[in-house]
Amino acid sequence: MIDVGGDGRVWLLSGTGSSYALRLTERDELLHLHWGPRITLADAEALAAEPLPGHRGFESLLDGREEYPVEGGPRFVRPALTTRTEAVRGTDWVYEEYQVHEGGAGGDELRLHFHDPVQHVDIALHYRLRTGTDVIERWATLSHGGGDRTAPVELLRADAAAWSLPVRDHWRLSHLHGRWAAESQLARTDLSHGEHVIGSRRGHTSHAHLPWIALDAGDAGEEHGEVWSAALAWSGSWRIAVQLLPDGLVQAVGGAGHDDAGLVLLAPGESYTTPVFAGLWTDGGFGASSRAWHAYQLAHVIPGAEQSRPVLYNSWEATYFEVSEAGQRALARRAADVGVELFVVDDGWFGTRTHDAAGLGDWTPNPDRFPNGLKPLADDVHALGMQFGIWVEPEMVNPDSDLYRAHPDWVQYQPGRRRTEFRNQLILNLARDDVRDYLWQQLDTLLHSAPIDYVKWDFNRCFTDAGWPGDPYPQRLWVDHVHGLYALLDRLRAAHPGVAFESCSGGGGRIDLGILSRTDQVWTSDNTDPLDRLAIQDGFSQIHPARVMAAWVTDSPNEQLNDRVSSLRYRFVSSMAGVLGIGGDLVKWSEDELTEAREWITRYKTIRPVVQHGELYRLRPPSEELSAVQYVRGDETVVLAWLRHQRHGEPQPALRLRGLDPAATYSDVATGEVHRGAVLLHHGLRTGLRGDLDAAVFHFRRN
Ligand code: GLA
Asked: Which residue's CA is the closest to the ligand 1 atom numbered 8?
């Protein structure tokens, strides 16, 4: 709902449990008023009437209060927008009008229009309140509104939004940092004066940070307290800067782009739309914040989220590059036998890709390995009752490939300089129309050549030499590569609506709301160790739902990982927290292991609707010896518990469950044992876990 007051200069957006208010001053400054619990329009108008502190010689009254701070005028904060023409740098806008679009697709939207008469830039600020949520999606559209003979305008930086926080004595920042094989590690740190900047300068979302922040006044816990959070929908380089200003105000600006030295050059008539920077205020702690983010993504971001994801088998860890039709068939038979629903052939099926130094770019089946193409194997997999999937890495090329030999200029490179190789590969310039057309044609042909149901789309190196010789404004490739990727994915999805896509980037290097709006699940991490995974999955769950979190059971001990020995039980329960998959070498598994795997997969299918579509409660974090998560959906609840290490004589804590009816009783679906809701809520569930690396699944149904 959007209310307008204050003679058309105060706006109030109200979601299911929160409100957001802003106002325009008589000098056309757009100031923030409120982001928190529900308030009325009269409250917002009263806030708007409060006098502002006056300018002092060394401070600006605007800093920390503006909805979209621009460079120019009396401002010293990090700006959201920096523009220049040859003659003039910075923005000075005039307000034009507002528009309210209620009942539009996905939510109500407020648009505020401004115009800079000197640079001829039209600026539209968008606020869309997503239906049934408290998520406000904010973005900006910058257009060159001048005539043919006016100068082009360079957007040195154009962020999506600035989020302002209320005044509190103290602030704490939560964020997710990491690296390859250790993504999405949750960190919580007190905010001190100055800036805390997270982001990626690598051309993809990156393993180093997920584009998400949460702020609380230092008093929130897992299930209590106010939390302000924001997430960017962008899969390239990005930045979120959280600023604690001299007078205690806090503001976070965020958007796409590599640095401040040039993002887009707008000729007359051209425009740039920033990605969405979505914000959410919740009461009820970090748990409630996560559940609200999950509900938003399931309802508004992830395509077809109401459908459950199948149990997957992936051949990578079993075969690496030793791919053969017979070998894949043998794995597929075993996979079908244990209950797998989707069989995926990973890297090594195409071109001359028998190792990682050749073949990327040539998306036709290797004639020695698949002499009749992929169709015979895909048909066999279908005959076994499974869907069929393949791995691709379309944005990349090995110099040892037919594609690179034909088009060495199709990659990103700096003229006259060495082309840096990572994993023996270079990056194709997806900002180029001819490159996108080639990839479209290759992938469309591939998807027509065999009954392929699933594509794992990988991206295995960062940008380094991001040049584009011959283009008048080469640095545009930082954003246009991502636009090219999105366009290619959108076109493939539209032409092949039955094909599901997974986003992968050496594990979890490209996970964000942008890629999630055009993929069906994501590969969480190349680290498949079941204990290491708990921390990665805990971090992932802060923002993204289990419905997209792929998790495989692999071999143990695993020389590719850390050689840790863990039971099949422990590995399965760890992977059952998301979209279950198997990545071990099933051909080597014993009859006993296969029988046990079959039982776990059967079990997973009974709890899957609750795990993939339920509400998540983190009962105890993975930093504890005993950790657990709970999912609640309607009358059913599932608890997954993991014990790292038991000390002799030390009592095990009971798990106090959440989201149950205290007046109801619940039956254990496996054993029939009856539990009282009030006892589970107030006294807890005894897990009976023992020893090292033990784990259990509980599935209760309300009577
Ligand atoms: C990346 C992925 C792996 C696997 C390999 C194949 O590292 O994260 O899962 O697909 O590429 O080369």
From this structure: 506
Q: Is the pTM of this model over 0.70?
A: yes
93-144, pLDDT tens digit by residue? 999 999 999 987 789 999 999 999 999 999 999 999 999 999 999 999 999 9
Q: What is the pLDDT of residues 167-214, one digit of tens each?
A: 999 999 999 999 999 999 999 999 999 999 999 999 999 999 999 999
Q: 434 catalytic, yes or no? A: no
- Strand 121-130 relative to strand 161-164, pairing: unpaired
d(CA 387, CA 452) in angstroms, rounded, equals 8
Residue 237 and residue 200 in contact, taking contact as beta carbons nearer than 8 Å: yes
169 belongs to the catalytic site:
no
Rounded to whole angstroms, the Cα distance separating 491 from 526 reads: 28
Task: Give the model confidence (pLDDT) of 652-662 as tens digits.
Answer: 899 999 999 99
CA terminus-to-terminus distance, the chain: 38
Alpha helices in 396-512 (DSSP H): 402-406, 433-449, 477-495
Provide CB contacts within 8 A for 307, sequence distance 6+.
Answer: none
Domains and CATH numbers, the chain: 2-300 (2.70.98.60), 312-611 (3.20.20.70), 620-702 (2.60.40.1180)
- Measure 416 CA to ligand 1 centroid, in angstroms: 31
Which of the following is catalytic: 216, 453, 512, 526?
526
281 lines ligand 1 (CB under 6 A): no
Distance 127 CA to ligand 1 centre (A): 38
Beta carbons within 8 Å of 399's beta carbon, 6+ residues apart: 419, 421, 424, 425, 426
Residue bearing the CA closest to ligand 1, atom 12: 347
Half-sphere exposure of 531 (CA within 13 A, CB side): 20
